[in-house]
Each structure stands twice: as structure tokens, then as C-alpha cells.
Fold:
Amino acid sequence: MRRQGPAENPASTVKTESVLSNIMKFENGLDFDNSAQREIYDYVERRGATPSKKVRQALGFDKTPFGHHLAVLCRDGYLRKTDGTLEVAFEVGDGESHVAGDITYSIRPARQADLGGLVGVIRSVAGDGAYIEAENVAEMIDYENALLRHNDVKSRMIFVATVDEEVVGWVHLDLPEIDKLCHTARLTVGVLTEHRGDGLGEALLDRGSTWATDRGFDRLYNSVPASNDQAKAFLEANGWGVEAIRENHYRIDGEYVDEVMMDCELSATHPWAASSDKPPAHWILDDSVSHRTRISQSHGMVLTSSHVHSQVHKFTRG
Structure:
């Protein structure tokens, strides 16, 4: 059975709101006019860039109602149509060009066409257990066949660094939509070995951090194996600190390796910023017991409290 829609004139509807207000509406959450628009959006959001005709046929819409719903979704900043292909729309800014020595590189929002190259770069950087979180990102986007995500549970944003239009690095942010976590984001960042030392990593990290700050996020998290000294040094040199260590969390080549949980505070609005009882810089989380423990680096005392438990819960869910 073919799907029908309202008889409203799409041309008159599209002109009723400004682009800026629609972008703001998108970033504040998902709010569709009807279930048909939600169905179209969900189809594209789950599959990545998809030809408009394929979406219409898969969902069984007639051309006229589909055209109306699509016009509204594009108007409201949920979807973008380029050369007949639909994708989730993020207001992410333009690409930036940089010159470092003899090379010129660009940092821009990832496109669906980058998927294969991006997955290859992440796997190269994360190989041999050097960066487990990034390895998981590569597996996820490869499985989903979608780069940018925005739904009721979480969103995903990715910027890439390119040299001669080839992806050589990335910064990725996972953005939870749950109220209690929506001020935090998880970040991964990496650059191919042959392009390190030219400032690409710092520029990617800055682009991701700026994007998150501009959208009201307070704190970024990243986790690396304790054996990855280069990643820890890079993050610490760029203002990150060790928030916790989870002992024996990874098993790499048959050996247990600690997880170093790092964070970066983006603003002074976090409760700890003005608190006199800010936790120590170094926590050890022991998974072998039913409750979590905090060990003070300076005093060696083992403490447990509901406050500690809530923060550990945030680490594991953030």
C-alpha cells in the first residue's frame, strides 16, 4: 500500500522558518512533525548516505508525499540532500586548510565517501592493541556503514585530516543524549605514523574540542592502554590529565594491561571545578570486587562512598 501525506504545499512550508532557527532546533533534539518524517529520518540515520529514490522505494512512499516530508526534514536541518543522496545533517562548519613544512592538509567534517579510508586509518593507528577505543570505533562504523549518527540515544561526530584528499587522521566524538550524561563526550583521535610531527594531531584535537565546547559540553574522556606511552604523552601535552586507572582491564597478546582513563575539562561549570573536595588525580578502579574503590595516590587510603560510585558509573557509561 502506497503511503500518503498531507496536501500542504511544500514550497510555502519551506520558506516559513530561518535556517539558523532550524539548526538550533536540530541540535536541541529530535522533534518531528509526524511519524512519516521520523521513519524517513531513522532510515537514513541508521544506514548513512543513501540515494533518495532508494529511501522512498524502501519505505513505500508515493513521490508527492515523500517530497513534502523530505522538504520539511531538510528545512528543519535533520537531513541534507546532495546530488540525489540523503544523509544526516550536522551544522559543523567548513573545512580548514593548514600548512606544515612541505605539506598542506585540511581538517573537515567526515563524508560518507571517507568511510573506507577512515576505517583503514583507524585500524592502522589502533593496530596491535595500541588503542582499543579507536579500534572499537572502526568496527562500529564499518558494521553500521554510517559515519555521522544522531538519534535519541547518542550522536556521533567525526572530523578527518586529509592530504591530497586522502584521509590521514581523524577525531571522533561519541555524544550521549541521556540527560545525566549529555554534558560529557568520549573522544578518540589519531594520525598515521608518516604524518606525525607536523601538527595534525593537535589541530584535530583542537577541532573536536572546539566543536564540543561550542555545543555546551563540559568534559571529554578518552581511554588508552597503559602501554601506549605515546598517546598518554600527546594527550597530557594538550591539557588532558589522568582521571583513573582500571587495573588489568585489557588483555593484549595474552597479557593483562591497565586502562588509563583520561579527561579534559572544557569549562569551569563542572561541579569539581569549584569544589574543595575534588578527587585525587589518580584513581585505581578494581573490577575484582563488587563495589568500586578509590585509592588516594598521596595517602594510600582505600575509600568508598556513593560519590565515588557515581563518578565511576559516569566513567563506565560516558
About this structure: The chain has a mean pLDDT of 74.
